[in-house]
Design a protein that fits this description.
This protein is α/β, with parallel strands linked by helices. The chain has helices spanning 19-31, 60-70, 87-99, 129-139, 153-181, 187-215, 225-241, 247-264, 272-277; strands at 10-14, 34-37, 50-55, 78-81, 103-110, 122-127, 144-147. Strands 2-1-3-4-5-6-7 form a seven-stranded mixed β-sheet, with helices on both faces. Pfam families: RedAm-like_C (PF21761). Residues 151-278 form the NADPH-dependent reductive aminase-like C-terminal domain.
Length: 278
């Protein structure tokens, strides 16, 4: 197995007793050269030839425990950390690895365990650029690898922000399925139409909004908040009449009302980012 552009050593996967860690260990082991290390209360023993250590701990506390138990065994090794957490936690982990003499790269897997190893799976990394450069070949075995910069916390912020998009989108999907289900429409029936709409019209709208957000200018020549507001009221009323929870549409309605009250009624829906920014 080629474990990096320098071709040095095998890969030690630590913390693979959770679903994501197990999937990472499996994919790297199938490629050859990866060694899964059990998590125990004692010291973490690293094979001498494993110059790359991939960590996927259950949480930040477990991560710090693993790093401290590995201690100076991390000296001269590259640590790629796929543990979920905050940016501040990633920076603390980076400092801990540096104290032990290693180099640190934080990563975030934007998918479920079953997505590990698929070329389309999104993984983002930040931290030591040299680690990403030297280990990009091995990281590519886990999915598409994108480097975001030197700050170890950046990958974690992307992780949380993208999870926000995923949860918001999937909650909207669940509400849509529940609402149409009141008329006997099955989720398998509506989903092809929804995914097509997301890939085409919705994706195009998002790309258009990106420029508006960066420019902080929200022209309402095609759609505007005061035009959207009555449609939101229709959605809230219909949901409640059909016995479907209306918390999600009411949240969007509330944000829109605040935008209109702030004088943004003739702006596009993207103008709500100013309400969210506070």
């Amino acid at each position: 197995m080629d474990t990096g552009t320098d071709g040095s050593g095998a890969v030690a996967v630590v913390g693979g007793d959770n679903a994501r860690g197990a999937a990472v260990g499996r994919v790297l082991a199938e490629a050859g050269g990866a060694v899964a290390l059990p998590v125990a209360a004692g010291a973490v023993e690293l094979p001498p030839g494993a110059r790359l250590v991939v960590v996927c701990a259950e949480d930040h506390g477990a991560l710090l425990g693993l790093l401290d138990r590995a201690g100076r065994r991390l000296a001269g090794r590259d640590v790629v950390d796929l543990t979920s957490g905050t940016g501040d936690e990633a920076r603390e982990a980076a400092e801990r690895v540096a104290d032990h003499g290693g180099r640190y790269l934080r990563g975030a897997l934007m998918g479920h365990p079953e997505h590990v190893g698929e070329p389309e799976t999104v993984l983002v990394y930040s931290g030591a650029a040299e680690v990403f450069r030297d280990r990009e070949t091995v990281l590519a075995r886990l999915g598409g690898a994108t480097y975001l910069g030197a700050d170890p916390g950046t990958a974690s912020l992307y992780d949380l922000a993208m999870l926000n998009l995923a949860w918001a989108t999937l909650t909207g999907y669940l509400h849509t399925a529940a609402l149409l289900g009141t008329d006997g429409v099955g989720a398998r029936t509506l989903t092809p139409l929804l995914t097509h709409w997301l890939r085409t019209t919705v994706a195009d709208v998002i790309e258009g909004y990106a420029g508006q957000i960066d420019d902080r200018a929200y022209p309402g020549d095609q759609e505007w908040l005061e035009l959207d507001a009555p449609l939101m009221e229709h959605l809230v009323r219909t949901s409640e009449q059909r016995g479907v929870d209306s918390a999600l549409p009411r949240l969007v309605q509330s944000l829109t009302a605040r935008g209109i009250a702030a004088g943004r009624g003739r702006e596009s829906f993207a103008g709500l980012v100013e309400v969210i920014r506070r």
